[in-house]
Amino acid sequence: MTSALEITATTDAACCTPGTGGMASSAATDLARTLKALADPARLRLLSIVAASEGQEACVCDLTDPIGLAQATVSYHLKTLTDAGFLTRSKRGTWAYYRLVPEALNAAGAAVSAL
């Protein structure tokens, strides 16, 4: 029969054993950078507007008014989302067009779900 002392010793040892799994430091840094790009209400709104636009693409000229921010601030947020891989940018004449990269959103969601 197992004594209470033996059970306590076994339980204490198990709770103090460091885990060997978990996310690697570099993966955590990358995911944090990606999530930081999404962690802004204006950026989330921009993504939702682009996602709801025809062909999941929108001209920067159509993104400034709905957000209610200065054009320079909207451009900064769009650059952040582009750098994070959530949007692509193409120039047509004097206007920039932004297209959603659904795979990037799916990958970010999968990474968070895997935690």
Compact overview of the structure:
Helix content is 58%, strand content 13%. It contains 6 helices and 3 strands; from the N terminus they run H-H-H-E-H-H-E-E-H.
Task: Describe the structure using short key phrases.
alpha+beta, three-stranded antiparallel beta sheet, 6 helices
Sheet with the most strands, sense and barrel status: 3 strands, antiparallel
Succession of helices and strands? HHHEHHEEH
Spatial shape = elongated
- How would you write the strand order of the largest sheet? 1-3-2
Number of helices: 6
- Give the averaged pLDDT, no decimals: 87
The class by helix and strand makeup works out as alpha+beta
Distance between the termini: 39 Å
Provide the gyration radius in Å.
22 Å
Written description of the protein model:
With 115 residues, the chain is of the alpha+beta class. 58% of the residues lie in helices and 13% in strands. It has 6 helices and 3 strands; from the N terminus they run αααβααββα. It has helices at 4-15, 25-38, 41-52, 64-67, 71-83, 102-113, and strands spanning 57-59, 87-92, 95-100. It has a 3-stranded antiparallel β-sheet. The radius of gyration is 22 Å and the shape is elongated. The chain starts with a helix and ends with a helix. The mean pLDDT is 87.
Layout: helices, strands, pairs:
Elements (H helix, E strand, L loop, with lengths): L3 H12 L9 H14 L2 H12 L4 E3 L4 H4 L3 H13 L3 E6 L2 E6 L1 H12 L2
Helix pairs in contact: 3-5
